[in-house]
Amino acid sequence: MSQKYSLPQLIALLVVTMNGFANDKAPSKPLNVLLIVVDDLGWSDLGCYGADLHQTPHIDSLCKDSLKFTDAYAAASICTPTRASIMTGIYPAKLHMTIWHEAAHRAPPTNRALIPPTVDANLAHHHMTLAESFQQAGYRTAHLGKWHLGTAGFYPELHGFDVNIGGTFWGCPATFFYPYRGLFGSRQELRYVPQLDGGQPGEYLTDRLTDEAIQIIRTSTDKPFFLNMCYYTVHTPIEGKPELTKKYTALLKDGQRHSNAHYAAMVQSLDENVGRLLTELKQQNILDQTVVILTSDNGGFINKFRGNTVTSNAPLRSGKGSLYEGGIRVPLLIRWPHVTTPNSVSHEPVTTCDFYPTLQATLNLPSNTEHNSRVDGTNLFTLLKNPTTSLNRGPLFWHYPHYYQTTDPVSSIRDGDWKLLKYHHSDRVELFNLAIDISEANNLATKHPQTTATLLSKLATWQTKVNAQMPTLNTQFKQER
Ligand SMILES: [Ca+2]
């Protein structure tokens, strides 16, 4: 029996047939994902981002093989909130997770002009985490290193990870040397890093976490893997290997941007271990089946540790804690096989919130409609394909209603080249044009009142929309004065 088709039916038939041909090819194996989140790595701490003391040949080589972002941002200027943004794709202000875990457990300070809000210390279970998305897609999901997103009931194993090596509620180890335990901080709290027994004296935490990661890569032959490689380095305690510290001590010169040999040693150990991971992927013949992302959870720590300034984010202003660029702008390299172009650069502003929708959509992972309605990140796929593409995403926002060595409570917006900071006490407002003033040295708020008013309005609208928690006036503090 002959059959007649209308034109639309013919087109539909052709499409189905072509898809059928495509499906006849061997099914492509799902890509592995290696997400390397370095702790407190500053924007200019790597050779490929302008470091002048630190030697990072392996990461520089990855950079040559990747898409490098010049304007990538952590969603927050400190650890826990940014890590929460990676796991959920949601702004820390909306999550009500705006300070690091340990501080969220303590009563806010009462000796300052403002009393910061009480915020969540644990990542709630109603979120569909990035790890759960991978897990439901049949991936082997492994978290290594720093977690910092909650107490035992909120550990990686309860947020979608099959494996957790070393992740706890603490933001840093007592020491980077085996057995990775000891008394830490002014409270002399005993800290430890679990799942890392059987080591030898002198063993170094950054090396050991890589050993563990390599074992996971080697044994993940039946499933693709999602490796959440959260190195504890280069956070305090600033402890490099003695031989590397000696090497950098000899390389110190006047006028260098970076001047801490212990820190430089930590950066080199990080670099060596990123090199080891990449070598392993090559040896397993899966480098081109693995998405590699390397970034940091906030800007470099510019305060002192054991008497020495830790790092500098120059030419960016300030560092960890602050909403100036030095506190939030971070290195970001993405090597996505057959998608990114080697040695390419993007100047588009992106944030750690973007990893969630990008990975979920591009790798076709299971998703949750309700969760995704709350996601603030943008799918970067078109940008990964063509780094000169504009995302047309609108402004990025930050909200830090707390104190730190580098800042008072503050919120911020970046809209195109304009960046505005609004301090919560005294209504101090600063406006910068990042295109001509990357160091945020010239406050243009008075010179450009209209832009200032527009950005203030956008910031206020966003704060309302995400129900951002605000600090309150400390009347007791006023009385004392
Ligand atoms: Ca950090």
Instruction: Report the CATH C-level class of the largest domain.
Output: Alpha Beta
Q: What count of helical segments does DSSP give?
A: 15
The CATH superfamily title of the largest domain:
Alkaline Phosphatase, subunit A
Ligand names = calcium ion
Radius of gyration: 23 Å
Description:
The protein is α/β, with parallel strands linked by helices and 481 residues long. It folds into 2 domains: 364 residues, Alkaline Phosphatase, subunit A (3-Layer(aba) Sandwich); 84 residues, 2-Layer Sandwich (Arylsulfatase, C-terminal domain). 30% of the residues lie in helices and 17% in strands. The strands form 5 sheets. Strands 1, 2, 4, 5, 8, 9, 12, 13 and 14 form a 9-stranded mixed beta sheet that branches. A hairpin with a 4-residue loop joins strand 6 and strand 7. Bound molecules: calcium ion (CA). Calcium ion (CA) binds next to loops.
